[in-house]
Amino acid sequence: MDIVKAAFVGILTAIVYAFLRNIRPEAAPLAVLGGSAVILTALGGRFLDIFSGADEMMNLAGLGKENISILMKSLGIFVVTQFAADICYDNSCSSIAAAVELAGRIGAVYLAMPMLETVARLAIGLIR
Question: What is the rounded CA–CA span in Å between residue 87 and residue 107?
Fold first, then answer.
């Protein structure tokens, strides 16, 4: 799916959301979830291409697979977190959105701890 199709689905979803918000407010968030799912599912192949390209670049650079794995998982956490928080913001749940964003940040830092430990050991080794 190219960007024009994704934009069209997004605009169509926004129109359906605005229509449903006035008629059946409890069903309006489902329209957003459905439209977003269509866009993300169509882009699934692109995500795989990005992951394989990043993996190939890391192999060429001589970096370990665990590092690229951590980076890709962190990217996934940020995308999912932002997506969920935006839906919460759209439905006037800013405190829930803030909690989701905080959970995403904590999850990414927790995931990156082994990489940060490696960097700290390298820095200590260089100082000595």
Answer: 19
pLDDT at 48 > cutoff 80: no
Rounded to whole angstroms, the Cα distance separating 108 from 81 reads: 10
Q: Structural domain boundaries of the chain?
A: 65-128
Residue type, 24: R
- Computed over its alpha carbons, how large is the radius of gyration of the chain? 19
- Tokens encoding 85: 């928080």
**Residue 76: C-alpha distances to residues 47, 51, 55 (Å):** 10, 11, 15
Report the C-alpha gap between 54 and 98 in whole angstroms. 30
As a whole number, mean pLDDT of residues 50-62 equals 72
* Residues contacting residue 11 through CB under 8 Å, at least 6 positions apart: none
**pTM for this prediction:** 0.64
| Proportion of the chain above pLDDT 70, given as a percent | 95
| End-to-end alpha carbon distance in the chain | 53
